[in-house]
């Protein structure tokens, strides 16, 4: 697993609401670049194996959403959740979760995750290639701190959730403030 100093340059394919489209599905495609998301900002990022999966839906995303104001108070500009899912799945998951503050960023092709060195094979679960669970603070595109779950391996029989959680990130930010 490679350790990198800066987030990789990629283009994310996202969907944004556009009322000028009209109809029951007023959304259009919009490309978002790594530069656009991270330049000049301090961003908390957490990545997880998949939308609608148990730990991701009951603990990982909800706790980051719950602590959002605490992150903002510590100088974080944005909290981003990345998953190797398409924009449609991420939108519906966010809607189902009531995510209003955490930005759900689809890494549909897994390019960002692969370039981060975090792409793992979860074929043993029928998931294919997904992200290993991790979190990080990105300051103006540079990785300030990263928390990677232990046991990184293809077809890992477990899904560790010990250090990429919102409370660990909050404790780090409080200590770094």
UniProtKB/TrEMBL annotation:
SUPFAM superfamilies linked: Thioredoxin-like
Pfam families to which the protein is assigned, alphabetical: Redoxin (PF08534)
Sorted UniProt keywords: Antioxidant, Oxidoreductase, Peroxidase, Redox-active center
Gene Ontology CC, one term: cytoplasm
MF annotations from Gene Ontology: thioredoxin peroxidase activity
Domain of life where this protein originates: Bacteria
E.C. number(s) listed in UniProt: 1.11.1.27
Catalytic activity: a hydroperoxide + 2 glutathione = an alcohol + glutathione disulfide + H2O
Active site per the UniProt annotation: 56 (cysteine sulfenic acid (-soh) intermediate)
Spans through the membrane: none
Coiled-coil regions listed: none
CDD domains, alphabetized: PRX5_like
Domain Thioredoxin: 1-177
GO terms under biological process: cell redox homeostasis; cellular response to oxidative stress; hydrogen peroxide catabolic process
Record-linked PANTHER family: PEROXIREDOXIN (PTHR10430), PEROXIREDOXIN-5, MITOCHONDRIAL (PTHR10430:SF16)
Known function: Thiol-specific peroxidase that catalyzes the reduction of hydrogen peroxide and organic hydroperoxides to water and alcohols, respectively. Plays a role in cell protection against oxidative stress by detoxifying peroxides.
Protein family membership: Belongs to the peroxiredoxin family. Prx5 subfamily.
UniProt protein name: Glutathione-dependent peroxiredoxin
Organism this protein belongs to: Trichormus variabilis SAG 1403-4b
Upper taxonomic lineage: Bacteria, Bacillati, Cyanobacteriota, Cyanophyceae, Nostocales
């Amino acid at each position: 697993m490679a350790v990198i100093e800066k987030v990789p340059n990629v283009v994310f394919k996202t969907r944004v609401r556009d009322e000028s489209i009209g109809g029951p599905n007023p959304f259009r495609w919009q490309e978002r670049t790594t530069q656009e998301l991270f330049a000049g900002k301090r961003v908390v990022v957490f990545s997880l194996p998949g939308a609608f999966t148990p730990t991701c839906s009951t603990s990982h995303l909800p706790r980051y959403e719950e602590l959002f104001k605490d992150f903002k108070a510590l100088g974080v500009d944005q909290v981003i959740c990345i998953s190797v899912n398409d924009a449609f799945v991420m939108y519906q998951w966010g809607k189902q979760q009531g995510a209003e503050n955490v930005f759900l960023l689809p890494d549909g092709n897994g390019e960002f995750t692969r370039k981060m060195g975090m792409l793992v094979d979860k074929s043993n679960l029928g998931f294919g290639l997904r992200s290993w669970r991790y979190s990080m603070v990105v300051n103006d595109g540079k990785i300030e701190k990263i928390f990677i779950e232990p046991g990184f391996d293809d077809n890992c029989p477990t899904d560790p959730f010990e250090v990429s959680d919102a409370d660990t990130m909050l404790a780090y930010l409080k200590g770094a403030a």
